Amino acid sequence: MWTKAKFALLLILLIVLFLPLIMMFFTSAIPEGDPFHIVMRRKIQNFQMESSKYGNVQRDLMFLNFFLRKKIRSVGSASWKVVAGGNSNFFMEISVSKEGGVGISTGNKNINVVKAIEFRVKTDRPMKLRLGFKDATEGRKEFLSPIDVYTSGKWSTLTLSINPSELSNIDRERVSRIYLIFDGNGKVSIDDLYFLNKFPTFYNFVKVIKYDMFGRYMLNSAIISLAVVLGNMLFSSMVGYAFARKNFLLKEALFAIILGMMMIPPQTTIIPVFILMKKIGWIDTYWALIVPALVTPFGVFLMRQYIEQIPKSLDEAAKVDGASDWQIFWRIIIPLSKAPLAVLGINVFIGAWNDLFYPLILTTSKEMRTVQLGLAMYQKLNTDWPSLMAASTIAGLPVIIVYLAFQKRIIAGILQGAVKG
Question: Does the reported pTM lie above 0.85?
Answer without folding.
Answer: no
